[in-house]
Amino acid sequence: MVTRFWISQVRKAAFSHTLKLSSDFYSQKDLPEIIRIIHTADSLSGVLDLSLLEFLPTLARLAAASFAIYVKFGAFIFCLAISGSIVYLWLDNHAFHNNLKKTEPERRCTDLELSRATNQALEKHIIVELFNTITYHIGIYEHALDAHLETESRWSQVAIYRSISLQRLQRGLFFAISMILTHRGTSAEDIIFLTLYWPTIAGHLSRLPSQYTRLHLKFTDLKCLLAHLDIKPTIKDGENACDIGPINGRITFSDVSFRYLGQKKETLKNVCISIRPRTTVALVGRSGSGKSTLLELLLRRYDVNSGSIKIDSQDIRELTLDSLRKSIAFVPSKSQIFHNWSIWQNLTYGSFDVHFEAITEVCCAVGIHDKISSSSKQYESIVGRDLNFSDGEMQLLEIARALIRKARILVLDEPTSSLDADTEAMIFEMLGKLNITIFMSANRLSSLKRVDEIIVLEQGVIKERGNHNELMETHGGVYQRLYSQWSE
Question: Is the pTM of this model over 0.85?
Fold first, then answer.
């Protein structure tokens, strides 16, 4: 029970710590690697079990057996047996560590690659099936599995070699001690005693190397876990951070520049944007122009390299992350609906105290209520099991979930990319009636005729700004060219 308690506490701490890490951590790690790190908390059980139930008891039994040899045959025989065992264990430990340096990183790498090959094929099964690449992924899996089994085989060969070496040492020690006792004229009863008792000593001695190896590997896993727990989030509350409080919804980007970690080129350069409360501003530009990056900076998934972002004259770096993100509702470009959760759980995610009437009102407004009502379980239907949604319907659920939060600022990252034209027009008409600040990015330019301001980005720099009619009057402008290409 004590072991289970500590494992539970360590695993909870690892999971909690991982969730609190910043976006740059997740951009450098993939899911199998992160899960493996969290699961290394189980190594604590192995360390405790091996130490308390195997390794230390084996040492105690070996010490007791050695003491019996000392009492029965004297100090010289005792020293001979102990010194031989110590020399072997030292040589074995030295060889083991040299082998560990060569094989353990490879074992961990091949194990991770096997997990990746499995996860990627299963997670992207639709693409695998429709691109006729099942055989290709089977080949990747078989290659990763063969590499993993090869490293395991080499590890097993080392274990067999260690076992054979230990057996030879035991036989050599037994022969040497027997010859010395015979030369001394030791009685036949004592020789028989040694012959019968020696397997006990040999058994305890033979278990030590394997137990030590397993214990060492568990400690190595724990070191990896401790190193993970030592990682600090780069985005966190400042020392004097305060809650944001009631806001009007004014957003100001002042000379904002930003570069992703490891990249030489700046993603954003000296961007200045002022968004008035209760207006809608849209970002437009080619892929990679910095639209989504600006939204992520406002959400403080990353911090600016220079300049500042303010909400109602408050620098977002001086606000607590909790209060900042509660004041902003977000609709991502990729669906983040939880499968095997009920529709109710998905819609109330982050707004757990909302009333049923408020949810149905929002769902009616975005046009998803009828779809939900078509199921016998309605809002208790499990996504993907009781009720399946198209990509467009998933986006409607995302929009509904954001609106249920009733935040003063709504951030939309290409929110209607999977919707038909009529539904898209209905959504933007509905959003236009909300008395909140809306900051969005869009690739479908048909949705931008009603927004208050359009900001055109090109390679991280603002090229144009204005409403749809103003930008269309700019002869040879970037927006005019993009709109013409879109409408063709």
Answer: no
